[in-house]
Amino acid sequence: MIRHLILIAIISIICTHPSYTQEVVVHPIACNSNHHDFAPVTYQDGIVFCSDRPSGYGIVWTDDAGNLESKMYLFSQNKTVPFAEEINKRGNEGPVCFDASFQNIYMTSPLRDDKNSPSGYHGIFISSKTSQGWTPPQPFVHNSNDQSFNCGHPALDQTGQRLYFISDQAGGYGGKDIYYCNRTTNGWDTPVNAGPEVNTAQNEIFPFIAADGSLYYSSDRQGQYDIYKSDPSKGQFMPGVAMPSPVNTEFNEYAFSITDNNEHGYFTSNRNNGQDDLFSYELSYPEFVDCPPAEQPSFCYLFEETEIMPNDSMPMIFEWELGDGKTARGLSTEYCYEDFGQYHVALNVYDSLTKARFARVSEVDVQISRSPYPFITAPDSAAVATPVLLTAEGTDIADLKPEKYFWNFGDGSHGSGYETRHPFAKSGHYSIQLGIIAYPPDGGEIKRCATHDIMVGTPEEIQQWISELEIAEANATKEAMSSSLQEDMVIVEKDSTTYLQYAPDSTLYFIEFKESAERMSMNDPYFNNIKFEITERYDSNATAFKYSVGHTTEMPVMMRIYRDMMSNGYLESIIKEQVSTDYEAQLIKQWWYMPDSLESAFNAHLNKFSDIRFEFGTYTINSTSYDNLDYIAEMMNLDHNIKLRIKAYTDSIGTHSRNLQLAKKRAESVSGYLTKAGVDPKRLVAVGYGESMPVAENASEEGRAQNRRVEFEIITDENRKKK
Questions:
Q1: CB within 8 Å of 369: residues ≥ 6 apart
Q2: Rounded-to-integer distance, Cα 239 and Cα 231, Å
Q3: Four-CA torsion 408, 405, 238, 214, nearest 10 degrees
Q4: pLDDT, tens digit (0-9, with 9 covering 90-100), for 625-639
Q5: Mind giving me the DSSP string for 232-243?
Q6: How far is CA 250 from CA 24, 227, 562, in A?
Q7: Cα angle at 86 between 83 and 88, to 5 degrees?
Q8: Among residues 383, 381, 404, which one has the least CA distance to residue 392?
Q9: Pseudo-torsion of CA 376, 380, 385, 391, nearest 10°?
C-alpha cells in the first residue's frame, strides 16, 4: 500500500545501467511490525523510518481509509523506539531527511488551518537539534500559503545546499512532480521543476540525490510504483531508467536507500501480502585478481626515425614499408591500420639517382591484437567530491561477450553496470578495477579484469602530481635511451681486460667502398684519401675481398662518414647492414692506411684532419672542427710514445706581430682541446708561425683561406735534436 501523501524519503544505491548485475541478497528487517513500515533513512548508527503502528500517544487519528496516522521511529542496536517525541505529535509525520551532521531534520507534516486543525494538505518543516532537544518545526518558505497544493518528500543533496521535494502545484507535468531549489544567502530560491526527463503525467515521488549526483525516485508510470534512476548530464537529468529485479517487482517498491559504501542498504516493498515492510539488502561482489592496466588496441601509429639527419646534398630517399602493402615517404609518417594482425615495418634508404636501396633500417614488428581484458574509459584526474563517469566502453574481447560488470573504486566502495559514476571523498591516487563475467555457450564462467589509475585532488595537487610524473618519466626515458645505446653491446673479458663487443644478434651498419677479386695491399695508394679505419673481409659467397669503413650500430654515424667518402672520390660507396655474427665471420683485419715511412705516414694521416676552423679574428675553435680534433686525439691516444707539434698560420691581413700572436693563440687552443680529450699536454707543442709561410698568394680570398691553416707534425727524436 502507498497511502495518499505519505511522504517517503529515498536514499539511492549507486547503479547506473539497465543491465544491473550486482548479486543482491534481500531479507526483511527485524523492526517490521504487523502494520505498515516504510521510508527508512540512515541516522547515525541506525535508521529512522515511518510506521502507522500504535504510537502509545493519548489521541489516535486515522485517515479517510481508516489507517492509523504515521509516526517516526528509530531502529538502533536491535531496538525500536519513537524518535524525537517533541516533533512527532503533529499528525502524519514523515518521511524525513537529515543533513550530513544529523543536526537538522527536514520533515513532512500536515498543514493546519486557522483553527490549528489539519487542512488535508502537507508541507515541509525544518527543526534543529539542541542540547534541550529538537526545536519547534518551522515551515519551509515554499509551502502553500493558501493551502492549495502539497509539498513533501524532502531530500538534500550531498552539499546540503540543494533541496529536492515533490509538489502537485499548478504548472507541472501532471500528478506529483519533483522540484528542487538552492540555498542562497537570502534563503531558498525559487523552486525549479526537474523537467520532462524525470517527470511524467503520472506521479513521481520519493526523490533522493546520491553522492554521484544521480537522482533516484519512484513513479507509477507503469501502473505500480517502481524505483527509477536519472543520471546527471551537463546540469540536467537523463531519462529515468527502472531498477531491475530484485529491487523492482510486480509489487510497489519505494524508499530505496543505501549506505555510504554502496554495499548495504534498505528499501520498502509491499511484496509480502500487500503490507509495506522494510527490507535490507547486501551487495555481493566477486573477487578479481591479477588485473593488468587497461589497454585498448591501437590501430594508429607514428613511425619515426629520429637518429638520421637528412642532408640536402645527399641523394637519399626515405621510404617506409608498412607491412600491409602500403608505403610512405619521409623520416616519419603517421599510419592507421584497418584490422588486427601483425605487420613488419621497415625504413628503406634509396639513392634517388640510381633508385638502388643501400640501407634498410628501423625495422619493427607491429602486433595489433584484441585485448583479452576489459577496457576502462575514464579520466586520469578528477576533483574531490565530483562524480566521475566510468564506463566499459572500448572493451573488445574476441569470442567473449561480457554479461556482468563489477567496479572496485579503490576507496573501499564498489559499483556495477556497464557504466557508473563515483565521487571520491578524499585527495589521493586510486586504482580503479573493472571486472567482467561472461558465460560461454559451452558452460562455465569466465572472469577478466583490468585497472585504471586516477588522481583525485584540488587543481593545485593534480598539477603537482603531474609535474612529478613528468620528471619521473623523463628520468625513465633517459635510462631507457642509455640502455638502448648499449643494447647492441656485450661485456667480454680478455687478457684481464674488459671490452665492449657487439652482441651476437645486433645489426651492424657500414660503408662498403671496394670489392676486389684479389686481395689489396694495406699500403695501396687507393686508400690514400680515407680518414677512417679500414675493414677487410672475405665474402666466400661472392668469392671477393670487400673493404669497408665506419662499422657501427648507430645509423647517424654512417651519414657523416658516407658524406666524407663521397666527397673524397669513393663514389661506389654504399651503406650496408649485416648481422654482427656474419660480419665477424668474414672479418680478416682492420687497419689505418700507412705508407712505408712511419713518420711521413703519421704526418700525412694526421693532416687529413687539419681543416681546423676558428671564429673570425679570434682563436675560438668553430664547432665544425670538433670531429677532426676528436680523431686526432684518438690517434694520439693509440701510442703514448709520440709527440705532436701543432703549427698554426694566418693570412697577411693585419700586422705581423698581431698575426704571430693570433697564430700562437690558435695553436694553443688546439692543444687545449686535445688535452681535454685525454692527450697528455707534455706530448703537445703549440707553435704560431703567423703569416710567414704562405702556401698561396694573399691577393685573393681563396688564397688567404688556404693560408689560414693548422698543420700537425709528429716529433721524432731527430726532430727534437734539430730544434
A1: 297, 340
A2: 8
A3: -30
A4: 888 888 888 777 766
A5: EETTEEPPPEE-
A6: 17, 12, 84
A7: 55
A8: 404
A9: -20
Q: How many residues does the chain have?
A: 723
Asked if residue 506 lies in contact with residue 553, where contact means CB atoms within 8 angstroms, the answer is: yes
CB-based contacts of 683, cutoff 8 Å, min separation 6: 636, 640, 642, 643, 644
At position 372, the amino acid (one-letter code) is P
Least-confidence region, from 143-157, 318-332, 460-474: 460-474
Distance CA 592, CA 152 (A): 98
Handedness of CA 47, 51, 57, 59 (dihedral sign): positive
Q: Who contacts 130 (Cβ-Cβ below 8 Å, separation ≥6)?
A: none
**What average pLDDT score do residues 183-196 get?**
94
Per-residue pLDDT tens over the stretch 642-695: 788 899 888 888 888 888 888 899 999 999 999 998 888 988 999 988 888 888
SS3 annotation, 430-457: EEEEEEEEECCCCCCCEEEEEEEEEEEC
Residue 568 CB coordination number (10 Å): 15
Greatest mean pLDDT among 89-103, 147-161, 323-337, 692-706 lies in 147-161
Pairing of strands 104-112, 133-134: unpaired
Distance CA 649, CA 687 (A): 9
Q: Which three cell numbers stand for residue 358?
A: 643501400
20's CB contacts (< 8 A; 6+ apart) are 243, 244, 247, 416, 417
